[in-house]
Amino acid sequence: MEFQQPLIRATLIKRYKRFLADVTLDDGREVTAHCANPGAMTGLNIAGMTVWLEPNDDPKRKLRYSWKLVEVGTGLVGIDTAMPNKIVAEALANSQIPELAAYKNIKPEVKYGENSRIDFLLTSSGLPDCYLEVKCANLSRTAGLVEFPDTVTKRGTKHLRELGNMTGQGHRAVTLYLVFRDDCSRFSVAADIDPTYATAFSDAHARGVETLCYATNIAVNAVTLGRPLPIEQP
User: Fold this and answer.
1) 191 CB-contact burial (10 Å; exposed 0-12 / middle 13-18 / buried 19+)
2) DSSP 127
3) Domain end: 78, 103, 137, which one?
4) Residue 2 lies in a domain
């Protein structure tokens, strides 16, 4: 997935009110950028960090810049939680996820369960319907390990239970954790941050919900699906 506009570099001043960040551009101007991430962003919102912004000239948007990436050490981390679904959609269309490549029809944002929407409903003749939920994982507290969630997520717990209900009805259900940073090689649920989610994760697995984890290839011009990563049980 390519960015719509070339990203520009800036320095983070502060992130606040969840969806706003003040930054200093390379030309010295201080501007406010949209931060499309409701999570805690632990270790990713420290003043002085180098960030990458996507500019826009849309008169309907209040802010001219959107925060997309942050540099951590020598690597890049994605912070826009809307991007993973776009990356996965592109990968599905190009049959780049072997576990799901047999499905020919891809429908995003389909209503199901109790007032829920599944990220993707995959269907194909002769195969059980597949309910695919995508989660963005970019928390890393241990070198090489990425975790989810970075804060308590009642919504995420509900999704796991809904997926378990789908397997109980004879459908296929999958949670795909997209690792939105390029410095990690394995994944685990952050049970200490949200024990309820960790329990729901184990329960979903017992009910037949499949779990996939894929890395991403991150650059300042595009982000694409990477290789599969091992999953450690919480």
Assistant:
1) middle
2) S
3) 78
4) no
Overall residue count recorded for the chain in this entry: 234
The two three-digit tokens of residue 123, written as one number: 């269907």
- Tokens standing for residue 122: 């995959």
Task: Give residue-wise pLDDT tens across range 193-223.
Answer: 999 999 999 999 999 999 999 999 999 999 9
Q: In Å, what is the CA distance from 232 to each residue of 55, 109, 229? A: 38, 29, 10
> CA 225, CA 206: separation in Å to the nearest integer?
28
From the centroid of its chain, how far is CA 168? Answer: 26
Closest C-alpha among 187, 222, 181 to residue 90: 222
* Exposure letters 169-183 (e unless 16+ CB within 10 A, then b): eebbbbbbbbbbbbb
Instruction: Return the number of other C-beta atoms located less than 10 Å from residue 82's C-beta.
Output: 10
Q: Are residues 43 and 98 in the same domain?
A: no
- Residues 153 and 208 placed together within one structural domain of the fold: yes
Residue with the two structure tokens 């776009």:
86
- Residue at 3 is within a domain: no
Segments forming the whole domain that contains residue 27: 8-78
pTM score, two decimals? 0.95
- What is the total count of domains within the chain? 2
- Using DSSP bridges, classify how beta strands 30-35 and 20-25 pair: parallel, antiparallel or unpaired: antiparallel
Residues 106-128 as b/e (b if ≥16 CB within 10 A, e otherwise) read bebeeebeeebebbbbbeeeeee
Task: Convert the pLDDT of each residue in 89-134 to its tens digit.
Answer: 999 999 999 999 999 999 999 999 888 999 999 999 999 999 999 9
